[in-house]
Amino acid sequence: MSSTHHEQIIREMFATFTDFGSTPDRLFDFMTSDYRQYVDGREMTLGDFQAHTHALRNTLSALEIDIQHIVCEGDKAATVHMARATRRSGEQSLIKVVAFYQFREGRICLVDELTHVLEGSESDQALGALQ
Question: What is the pTM of this model?
Answer without folding.
Answer: 0.89
